[in-house]
Every structure is written in C-alpha cells, then in structure tokens.
Amino acid sequence: MKILVVSDTHGHLDLYEKLIEKIKPMDLVIHCGDIEGQELMFENLNREILKCNSVIVCGNNDFFSDLDREASLEIRGHRILVTHGHTMYVSANTDFIKQEAYARGYDIVIYGHTHRPVLDEGSAITALNPGSLSYPRQEGRLPSYAIITFENGQVSYAIRYIDRDFFG
Which domain holds residue 50? Predict the structure, then answer.
C-alpha cells in the first residue's frame, strides 16, 4: 500500500495536480491541513487521477471549514494520528506531538504547519511532516511531499523534493 502525504497547499493545487499525474498510482492521499477551501477539488483530483480516497484535516488557515481537526487511521497494524500540528508546538520540535501520540496509543503521527519536512523515527513513535508544496520554508525551499509504503509487514517513509527538472 502506498500513501501520498502533502500539507500546506494554501489554495494552490496546480503543482499538486502535476505531481499526482507523474507519481500515480497511490492507494490513499493524506492532506495535513491548510488546504484553504479546496477540499472538494482535492478530493476530485484524487478520485479522477489516482482513483483513491483522501483524508484531510483542518489547518490553522482553514477558516470556516467543517474539516475535522484530527483523523485516526489504522493501516496494517499501525495506528496513525493525522493533525495539522499547530496546537502541538511543532514549530519548536516533535517532542510534544510524539508524546501526545504515544499517550493516545498511536505509533505514527503525521502533521504539517511548519512548511518544513521532518522524518523523526527516533523512538516508539514516528513523526512525519511532508513539508509544503506551495510555500516551502526549509533550506533550499524546494516543494516537498512524503510517501509512506506498507509492504511485506514493513513500513517505510520517504520525503521527496520537487525541483525544476522534476517534470522533465
């Protein structure tokens, strides 16, 4: 099973549409918030191009949204918490969000908000932030996303970057 994870698109799905055309197929897409009113467009792109479902949580810029603040998933024996992260001090580090996920019985937490990709596998909890496709803030400022793969009883994570040569 392959899961695409994105976050902080902030109303700009043009790069996302090009991305999914290039990397399809996927089995599920997770958006970690700050989609800014494009939930339906996002879901339609995923259904039409990837032929898969979407999980979207509310971010701090999703004003007047009826999206849930968190989503809970269970995939192949793993309990996954999806949140935007802005209420869990993620701008400082992953300590609090990992403690919260652990206390609630999760082993993976996926979040956004910082616009900086993070993969922290240093304990019983894996924390993953895909960064931002629209407004990256890490050094080099390349748009980023993540892929989670569940295969043969193992889970693997990859953060990928989009540079000017990505689309050939």
Answer: 2-161
- Taking only the tens place, the pLDDT of each residue in 87-124 is 999 999 999 999 999 999 999 999 999 999 999 997 79
The CATH number of the domain where 68 resides is what? Answer: 3.60.21.10
Is the model's pTM score more than 0.90? Answer: yes
DSSP code of 106? Answer: -
Alpha carbons 30 and 152: distance in angstroms, whole number: 22
CB atoms within 10 A of CB 96: 14
Residue 17 covered by a domain: yes
Q: In this predicted model, what pLDDT tens digit does every residue of 26-43 receive, in sequence order?
A: 999 999 999 999 999 999
Q: How many domains does the chain have?
A: 1
135, part of any domain = yes
Residue 78 placed within a domain: yes
Residue found by looking up tokens 């652990």 in the block: 102
Instruction: Tell whether 140 is covered by a domain.
Output: yes
Compute the half-sphere exposure of residue 55: CA atoms within 13 Å on the CB side of its CA.
Answer: 21
Q: Which amino acid is at 148?
A: I
CA angle 124, 131, 61 (to 5 degrees): 110
3-state class (DSSP) for residue 44:
helix
